[in-house]
Amino acid sequence: MRGRERKITLILTTGILLIIITGFIGVVSAIETGGYVVEPAYGISPDYTNIYFGDLSGDYDFLQGPGPEKIGYWELPIMIILILIVIGLISSIFYTVKLFLSGKISFIYGLSKIKKKDILENESRRKVYDTILQNPGIQLCEIEKLTGFTNKNSEYHIKKLLSYSLIVYKQTSRGKGYFQNSNTYSLKEKIVYMHSKNPTEKRIIEIIHENPGITRKELSGVIKISAPSVSWYITGLTNDNILKKERVGTRVHYYINDSFKTDISNLINEKKAVVFNYEIPS
Predict the structure, then answer these.
(1) One domain for residues 179 and 196
(2) Which of 232, 264, 230, 236 is nearest to 174 (CA)?
Protein backbone atom coordinates (compact mmCIF):
# COMPACT_ATOMS: atom_id res chain seq x y z
CA MET A 1 0.00 0.00 0.00
CA ARG A 2 2.86 2.37 0.76
CA GLY A 3 4.13 2.07 -2.79
CA ARG A 4 0.69 2.87 -4.16
CA GLU A 5 0.25 5.85 -1.83
CA ARG A 6 3.66 7.10 -2.83
CA LYS A 7 2.76 6.95 -6.51
CA ILE A 8 -0.50 8.82 -5.90
CA THR A 9 1.37 11.49 -3.94
CA LEU A 10 3.92 11.87 -6.72
CA ILE A 11 1.19 12.20 -9.34
CA LEU A 12 -0.64 14.87 -7.34
CA THR A 13 2.59 16.75 -6.65
CA THR A 14 3.53 16.74 -10.31
CA GLY A 15 0.03 17.89 -11.26
CA ILE A 16 0.16 20.81 -8.81
CA LEU A 17 3.58 21.87 -10.11
CA LEU A 18 2.33 21.80 -13.69
CA ILE A 19 -0.72 23.86 -12.70
CA ILE A 20 1.46 26.49 -11.01
CA ILE A 21 3.81 26.65 -13.99
CA THR A 22 0.88 26.91 -16.41
CA GLY A 23 -0.72 29.71 -14.39
CA PHE A 24 2.57 31.61 -14.18
CA ILE A 25 3.11 31.33 -17.92
CA GLY A 26 -0.44 32.57 -18.55
CA VAL A 27 0.03 35.65 -16.37
CA VAL A 28 3.41 36.50 -17.89
CA SER A 29 2.02 36.07 -21.40
CA ALA A 30 -0.86 38.43 -20.65
CA ILE A 31 1.48 41.06 -19.21
CA GLU A 32 3.94 40.78 -22.08
CA THR A 33 1.22 41.25 -24.67
CA GLY A 34 0.17 44.53 -23.06
CA GLY A 35 -3.03 43.42 -21.36
CA TYR A 36 -6.47 44.19 -22.74
CA VAL A 37 -7.63 47.22 -24.75
CA VAL A 38 -10.87 49.09 -24.02
CA GLU A 39 -12.28 51.21 -26.85
CA PRO A 40 -15.17 53.73 -26.76
CA ALA A 41 -18.41 52.27 -28.05
CA TYR A 42 -19.04 55.20 -30.39
CA GLY A 43 -16.33 53.91 -32.69
CA ILE A 44 -18.74 51.35 -34.14
CA SER A 45 -20.72 51.61 -37.35
CA PRO A 46 -22.43 55.03 -37.79
CA ASP A 47 -25.78 53.32 -38.29
CA TYR A 48 -25.64 51.74 -34.85
CA THR A 49 -24.13 54.87 -33.32
CA ASN A 50 -27.26 56.83 -34.27
CA ILE A 51 -29.43 54.21 -32.65
CA TYR A 52 -27.60 54.07 -29.35
CA PHE A 53 -26.27 57.61 -28.99
CA GLY A 54 -28.66 59.77 -30.98
CA ASP A 55 -27.94 62.16 -33.82
CA LEU A 56 -24.22 62.80 -34.31
CA SER A 57 -24.75 65.97 -36.36
CA GLY A 58 -24.30 68.26 -33.35
CA ASP A 59 -21.36 68.86 -31.10
CA TYR A 60 -21.28 66.25 -28.39
CA ASP A 61 -18.69 65.93 -25.69
CA PHE A 62 -18.39 62.20 -26.10
CA LEU A 63 -17.24 62.67 -29.70
CA GLN A 64 -14.20 64.40 -28.28
CA GLY A 65 -13.80 61.71 -25.65
CA PRO A 66 -10.61 59.86 -24.84
CA GLY A 67 -9.10 57.32 -27.21
CA PRO A 68 -8.44 53.62 -26.50
CA GLU A 69 -7.05 52.98 -23.04
CA LYS A 70 -4.91 50.01 -22.02
CA ILE A 71 -5.59 48.25 -18.76
CA GLY A 72 -3.47 45.70 -16.93
CA TYR A 73 -4.27 42.03 -16.56
CA TRP A 74 -5.12 42.41 -12.87
CA GLU A 75 -7.44 45.36 -13.56
CA LEU A 76 -10.02 43.00 -15.02
CA PRO A 77 -13.13 42.30 -12.92
CA ILE A 78 -12.39 39.71 -10.23
CA MET A 79 -15.05 37.36 -11.66
CA ILE A 80 -13.35 37.31 -15.06
CA ILE A 81 -9.99 36.57 -13.44
CA LEU A 82 -11.49 33.71 -11.40
CA ILE A 83 -13.13 32.21 -14.48
CA LEU A 84 -9.84 32.31 -16.39
CA ILE A 85 -8.00 30.69 -13.47
CA VAL A 86 -10.59 27.90 -13.16
CA ILE A 87 -10.43 27.20 -16.90
CA GLY A 88 -6.64 27.07 -16.73
CA LEU A 89 -6.69 24.71 -13.73
CA ILE A 90 -9.18 22.33 -15.35
CA SER A 91 -7.16 22.23 -18.58
CA SER A 92 -3.91 21.63 -16.69
CA ILE A 93 -5.36 18.82 -14.57
CA PHE A 94 -6.93 17.13 -17.59
CA TYR A 95 -3.70 17.32 -19.58
CA THR A 96 -1.62 16.04 -16.65
CA VAL A 97 -3.88 13.04 -16.09
CA LYS A 98 -3.86 12.30 -19.82
CA LEU A 99 -0.06 12.30 -19.88
CA PHE A 100 0.20 9.95 -16.91
CA LEU A 101 -2.37 7.55 -18.29
CA SER A 102 -0.60 7.44 -21.65
CA GLY A 103 2.76 6.90 -19.96
CA LYS A 104 4.37 9.79 -21.87
CA ILE A 105 5.83 11.29 -18.69
CA SER A 106 6.68 8.04 -17.01
CA PHE A 107 10.22 9.26 -16.39
CA ILE A 108 9.05 11.83 -13.85
CA TYR A 109 9.79 10.81 -10.27
CA GLY A 110 10.62 7.25 -11.26
CA LEU A 111 7.14 6.30 -12.46
CA SER A 112 7.31 3.63 -15.15
CA LYS A 113 5.13 2.34 -17.97
CA ILE A 114 3.67 -1.15 -17.99
CA LYS A 115 6.41 -3.68 -18.56
CA LYS A 116 6.00 -6.21 -21.35
CA LYS A 117 6.02 -9.11 -18.91
CA ASP A 118 3.12 -7.50 -17.02
CA ILE A 119 0.98 -6.57 -20.02
CA LEU A 120 -1.10 -9.76 -19.76
CA GLU A 121 -1.83 -9.37 -16.05
CA ASN A 122 -4.97 -7.50 -17.06
CA GLU A 123 -7.69 -10.16 -17.19
CA SER A 124 -9.59 -8.61 -20.10
CA ARG A 125 -6.45 -8.11 -22.16
CA ARG A 126 -5.43 -11.69 -21.48
CA LYS A 127 -8.81 -12.86 -22.74
CA VAL A 128 -8.38 -10.92 -25.99
CA TYR A 129 -4.85 -12.30 -26.41
CA ASP A 130 -5.95 -15.90 -25.82
CA THR A 131 -8.81 -15.45 -28.28
CA ILE A 132 -6.35 -14.35 -30.97
CA LEU A 133 -4.05 -17.30 -30.21
CA GLN A 134 -6.91 -19.76 -30.52
CA ASN A 135 -8.30 -18.14 -33.68
CA PRO A 136 -5.45 -17.04 -35.95
CA GLY A 137 -6.56 -14.43 -38.46
CA ILE A 138 -9.51 -13.37 -36.33
CA GLN A 139 -11.02 -9.96 -37.01
CA LEU A 140 -12.17 -7.29 -34.57
CA CYS A 141 -15.88 -8.06 -34.93
CA GLU A 142 -15.22 -11.73 -34.16
CA ILE A 143 -13.14 -10.82 -31.10
CA GLU A 144 -16.08 -8.78 -29.81
CA LYS A 145 -18.45 -11.74 -30.19
CA LEU A 146 -16.16 -14.29 -28.56
CA THR A 147 -15.09 -12.10 -25.63
CA GLY A 148 -18.33 -10.21 -25.09
CA PHE A 149 -16.44 -6.92 -25.01
CA THR A 150 -17.57 -3.74 -26.71
CA ASN A 151 -15.93 -2.51 -29.90
CA LYS A 152 -14.10 0.26 -28.08
CA ASN A 153 -12.88 -2.02 -25.29
CA SER A 154 -11.67 -4.70 -27.71
CA GLU A 155 -9.92 -2.13 -29.87
CA TYR A 156 -8.18 -0.64 -26.81
CA HIS A 157 -6.71 -3.99 -25.74
CA ILE A 158 -5.69 -4.83 -29.32
CA LYS A 159 -3.79 -1.54 -29.58
CA LYS A 160 -1.99 -2.32 -26.33
CA LEU A 161 -1.04 -5.79 -27.54
CA LEU A 162 0.18 -4.34 -30.84
CA SER A 163 2.21 -1.63 -29.11
CA TYR A 164 4.04 -4.29 -27.07
CA SER A 165 4.52 -6.49 -30.17
CA LEU A 166 2.62 -9.42 -28.69
CA ILE A 167 0.42 -9.64 -31.77
CA VAL A 168 0.61 -8.58 -35.42
CA TYR A 169 -2.00 -8.05 -38.10
CA LYS A 170 -2.34 -8.81 -41.78
CA GLN A 171 -4.44 -6.67 -44.11
CA THR A 172 -6.23 -8.49 -46.93
CA SER A 173 -9.17 -7.82 -49.22
CA ARG A 174 -11.36 -9.22 -46.44
CA GLY A 175 -10.11 -6.80 -43.80
CA LYS A 176 -7.57 -6.90 -40.99
CA GLY A 177 -6.78 -10.17 -39.22
CA TYR A 178 -4.78 -10.59 -36.00
CA PHE A 179 -2.13 -13.21 -35.20
CA GLN A 180 0.29 -13.99 -32.42
CA ASN A 181 3.64 -12.35 -33.08
CA SER A 182 5.68 -15.46 -33.79
CA ASN A 183 7.09 -17.50 -36.65
CA THR A 184 4.16 -19.91 -36.49
CA TYR A 185 2.57 -18.69 -39.71
CA SER A 186 4.14 -17.50 -42.93
CA LEU A 187 2.76 -14.50 -44.78
CA LYS A 188 0.86 -16.73 -47.21
CA GLU A 189 -0.52 -18.88 -44.39
CA LYS A 190 -1.92 -15.78 -42.73
CA ILE A 191 -3.72 -14.82 -45.93
CA VAL A 192 -5.15 -18.34 -46.31
CA TYR A 193 -6.26 -18.43 -42.67
CA MET A 194 -8.14 -15.17 -43.05
CA HIS A 195 -9.99 -16.30 -46.17
CA SER A 196 -10.80 -19.68 -44.65
CA LYS A 197 -12.66 -18.01 -41.77
CA ASN A 198 -15.72 -17.76 -43.98
CA PRO A 199 -17.23 -21.26 -44.49
CA THR A 200 -18.37 -20.51 -48.05
CA GLU A 201 -15.03 -19.06 -49.03
CA LYS A 202 -13.25 -22.03 -47.46
CA ARG A 203 -15.40 -24.41 -49.52
CA ILE A 204 -14.55 -22.51 -52.69
CA ILE A 205 -10.83 -22.82 -51.91
CA GLU A 206 -11.19 -26.55 -51.25
CA ILE A 207 -13.25 -27.18 -54.38
CA ILE A 208 -10.81 -25.34 -56.65
CA HIS A 209 -7.91 -27.11 -54.92
CA GLU A 210 -9.46 -30.49 -55.76
CA ASN A 211 -10.86 -29.42 -59.14
CA PRO A 212 -8.36 -27.11 -60.84
CA GLY A 213 -9.77 -25.31 -63.86
CA ILE A 214 -13.33 -25.14 -62.56
CA THR A 215 -15.47 -22.27 -63.87
CA ARG A 216 -17.66 -19.82 -62.00
CA LYS A 217 -20.84 -21.46 -63.30
CA GLU A 218 -19.65 -24.86 -62.13
CA LEU A 219 -18.77 -23.48 -58.70
CA SER A 220 -22.21 -21.90 -58.42
CA GLY A 221 -23.85 -25.24 -59.19
CA VAL A 222 -21.78 -27.13 -56.61
CA ILE A 223 -22.09 -24.66 -53.74
CA LYS A 224 -25.70 -23.76 -54.54
CA ILE A 225 -25.23 -20.01 -54.40
CA SER A 226 -25.78 -17.39 -57.10
CA ALA A 227 -23.14 -16.65 -59.71
CA PRO A 228 -22.75 -13.00 -58.53
CA SER A 229 -22.04 -14.28 -55.01
CA VAL A 230 -19.42 -16.66 -56.37
CA SER A 231 -17.88 -13.75 -58.28
CA TRP A 232 -17.63 -11.73 -55.07
CA TYR A 233 -15.70 -14.48 -53.29
CA ILE A 234 -13.49 -15.20 -56.29
CA THR A 235 -12.61 -11.50 -56.66
CA GLY A 236 -11.30 -11.37 -53.09
CA LEU A 237 -9.30 -14.57 -53.50
CA THR A 238 -7.87 -13.35 -56.80
CA ASN A 239 -6.94 -9.94 -55.38
CA ASP A 240 -4.91 -11.67 -52.66
CA ASN A 241 -3.25 -13.93 -55.26
CA ILE A 242 -4.68 -17.16 -53.84
CA LEU A 243 -6.39 -17.84 -57.17
CA LYS A 244 -5.31 -17.32 -60.72
CA LYS A 245 -7.55 -17.41 -63.77
CA GLU A 246 -7.10 -18.49 -67.34
CA ARG A 247 -9.44 -17.61 -70.17
CA VAL A 248 -10.16 -20.24 -72.80
CA GLY A 249 -12.46 -18.81 -75.42
CA THR A 250 -15.42 -17.33 -73.57
CA ARG A 251 -14.91 -19.38 -70.41
CA VAL A 252 -12.72 -18.42 -67.44
CA HIS A 253 -11.11 -21.24 -65.47
CA TYR A 254 -9.80 -20.85 -61.92
CA TYR A 255 -6.78 -22.47 -60.29
CA ILE A 256 -4.95 -22.25 -56.99
CA ASN A 257 -1.89 -20.08 -57.44
CA ASP A 258 1.24 -22.26 -57.38
CA SER A 259 2.76 -20.28 -54.49
CA PHE A 260 -0.28 -21.06 -52.30
CA LYS A 261 -0.76 -24.76 -53.06
CA THR A 262 1.40 -26.03 -50.20
CA ASP A 263 -0.13 -23.66 -47.65
CA ILE A 264 -3.67 -24.62 -48.63
CA SER A 265 -2.84 -28.33 -48.48
CA ASN A 266 -1.37 -27.86 -45.00
CA LEU A 267 -4.40 -25.91 -43.86
CA ILE A 268 -6.82 -28.55 -45.13
CA ASN A 269 -4.86 -31.33 -43.45
CA GLU A 270 -4.39 -29.38 -40.22
CA LYS A 271 -8.09 -28.63 -39.94
CA LYS A 272 -8.85 -32.23 -40.94
CA ALA A 273 -11.29 -30.86 -43.45
CA VAL A 274 -13.16 -33.43 -45.48
CA VAL A 275 -12.79 -32.54 -49.14
CA PHE A 276 -15.63 -34.23 -50.93
CA ASN A 277 -15.42 -35.55 -54.44
CA TYR A 278 -17.61 -32.83 -55.87
CA GLU A 279 -19.45 -33.65 -59.03
CA ILE A 280 -18.99 -30.90 -61.55
CA PRO A 281 -22.23 -30.33 -63.48
CA SER A 282 -21.84 -30.44 -67.23
Answers:
(1) no
(2) 236
User: Based on the domain organization, do 29 and 82 belong to the same domain?
Assistant: yes
pTM of the model: 0.53
Residue ending a domain, among 167, 184, 201, is: 184
pLDDT digits (tens, 9 = 90+) for 153-201: 999 999 999 988 899 999 998 889 999 988 888 888 888 888 888 889 9
Q: Which long-range contacts (CB under 8 A, 24 or more apart) does 258-263 make?
A: 259/188, 260/188, 260/191, 260/192, 261/209, 263/186, 263/188, 263/189, 263/192
Q: Is 98 in the same domain as 7?
A: yes
Number of domains in the chain: 3
Residue pLDDT, tens place only, 221-252: 998 888 899 999 999 999 999 999 999 988 99
Q: What are the DSSP calls for the chain, one per residue?
A: -HHHHHHHHHHHHHHHHHHHHHHHHHHHHHHHTT-EEE--GGGS-HHHHHHHH---SS--GGGG----EEE-GGGS-HHHHHHHHHHHHHHHHHHHHHHHHHTTTTTGGG--PPPGGGGGGSHHHHHHHHHHHHSTTB-HHHHHHHH---HHHHHHHHHHHHHTTSEEEEEETTEEEEEESSSSS-HHHHHHHHHTTSHHHHHHHHHHHHSTTEEHHHHHHHHTS-HHHHHHHHHHHHHTTSEEEEEETTEEEEEE-GGGHHHHHHHHHHTT-----PPPP-
What's the alpha-carbon Rg for the chain, to the nearest Å? Answer: 34
